[in-house]
Amino acid sequence: MVRSSDLHELLARVHAVLRQLDAGVAAPARDREHHHFRFCGWQLDCTTRRLTDPAGAPVLLTRGEYTLLVVFLNAPRRPLSREYLVQATHLHEGVSDRSIDVQVLRLRRKLEPRPGAPRIIRTERSAGYLFAVPVQRI
Question: What are 106-114's contacts with CB under 8 Å, separation 24+?
């Protein structure tokens, strides 16, 4: 039989771990604002939130698309689950993880020459999404 005090201690430990995870997700956000990223000829300037395509033309991003792109650029070549992306992009609780699918689709339409056959942001079955190209911080 589990005692009430054991459950309270377990709950307190879970909350402590969640706070640490939240701090770990939030801390890089401050740091990443001082970077530029380059991938496949594209460039993202995080200080101005300006994305330029390989020809140097600016590409407008919504706030959600920008945030999602920054999350991907900070974790290239690593599969990221929908749940992680929802948390990392700070979407409101109760929002379906399918909203990430919509954001990824919109971002693909802007980044991919052929969004139907993506090579930059790939879907990883049972894992989520993968930013599949190398990323350089400049």
Answer: 106/62, 106/65, 107/61, 107/65, 107/68, 107/69, 110/51, 110/59, 110/61, 110/65, 111/42
What is the pTM for the complete model shown? 0.73
pLDDT band (50, 70, 90) for residue 23:
very low
Element (H, E) at 11: helix 4-32
* Residue 47 one-letter amino acid: T
Beta bridge partners, 123, equal 129
What pLDDT is attached to residue 27? Answer: 44
pLDDT given for residue 115 in this prediction: 83
* Burial (CB count within 10 angstroms: exposed 0-12, middle 13-18, buried 19+), residue 82: middle
Mean pLDDT of 62-72: 95
